[in-house]
Amino acid sequence: MNSTINIDLDGDRLREECGVFGVFGHADAAALTALGLHALQHRGQEAAGIVSFDGERFQTERRLGLVGDHFSSGKIIERLKGSMALGHVRYSTTGETILRNVQPMFAELASGGLAVAHNGNITNGLTLRRELISQGCICQSTSDTEVVLHLVARSQKSRMVERYIDALRSLEGAYALVALTNKKLIGARDPLGIRPLILGKLNDAYILCSETCALDIIGAKFVREVENGEVVVISEEGIESHRPFPRQPARPCIFEYIYFSRPDSVLGGRSIYEVRKAMGRQLALESPVAADVVVPIPDSGVPAALGFAQATGIPFELGIIRNHYVGRTFIEPTQTIRSLGVKLKHNANRAAVAGKRVVLIDDSIVRGTTSVKIVRMMYEAGAREVHMRISSPPIAHPDFYGIDTPEQTSLLAATHTLAEMRDYIGVASLAFLSVDGIYKAVGFEGRDAHRPQFTDHCFTGDYPTPLTDLTGERGKQQLSLLAEAG
Ligand code: SF4
Predict the structure, then answer these.
(1) Which residue lies with its CA nearest to atom 5 of ligand 1?
(2) From ligand 1's centre to the CA of 402, what distance in Å?
């Protein structure tokens, strides 16, 4: 019996919102930026843009779609002249998917041109934008990032760096922000360091980017991470480090380890791949199961499934085969598309699962819609029993820091008990890694309830910053706006 079912395994995932990449001091700055963005494509597939400066003029090229569709042609790269460039890949959480929302955002200010590229979400962005518009500002886009340009333009400070820092002081929420001026490349991380930002070096050129995998693709060396609350300024004079905010302990987003960052990236000195394997081992320790094969849900479930198989001794099998040549579609992240579960990307490998007790390993469950289809696919391929183990705790709270999460009411774990989730998905047993377990897998004894080492509120509901845009009447409006934009 043919066991093909139409499933889009990427349909029911949290989506990281964006990737940033900037170069200072290299003759091929734009070409390197295109390669860096290509390596960061998993952080955003909707649109990409590059701004360069050739000593006199800024050039901007922004396109909807994948980096490879537009920036692999020499013609566009040739137009992006200069030894300084800044790029961005985007997946929208705020602002529609239209060209005017594609980053980097650029404006000519009194003190010269300024381009900004942002990963994260400014949780008072809408409030700031409303104030700016009421004071006469003309916004070109509906993106929260444009607010930064207006705040820099309105600062009374003299030097561009001071104006930039002045603008940062007004921001709440999560940001890894990179800016390009006619003399400098400036990187900044929010006071908690929720989104990642890396400093690298290629010969005499410096790079600022979201993940180390973007350094690897161009053969650049890792220098260090930009610290939480730090502003790094790169210029002909070298590197300056500023600390404009009161010091506080870092709380980076733990989901970078679970799903967002590429397995070959290194974050906080830890290999993402090794941390995910450790999550699989910890999961096996906490929630063992009697099974014949361990089957990962590709691709992001693979490292945890390897760790689970190594810890239990149950054979690891590729029970689901991913078709990497489906051809690219420009995925509009609308509810309609998600519920359609388009395109045949994945298929059951009958030889690996027929007649077997299968334990499926995945990194997370959001709505659960895709898990239902996968489990049905396993049974239709002849599996005798299907169990599921998830290498992260249940996601019960929406994100407001740059991750596209559905309304809380659409989160399976926010509206179902564990037993109800098990029955809804149709498995014999279901278990999630505990919150302490995920901290252990990352290298801690457990979660420090007084000073949590990470931002983890999609599991704990412990939001680390004020959410100004989401308070009061306005908050309700914003929540519905967010739902519309999502
Ligand atoms: S809710 Fe927090 S931990 Fe979860 S993805 Fe967002 S920033 Fe990361």
Answers:
(1) 255
(2) 8
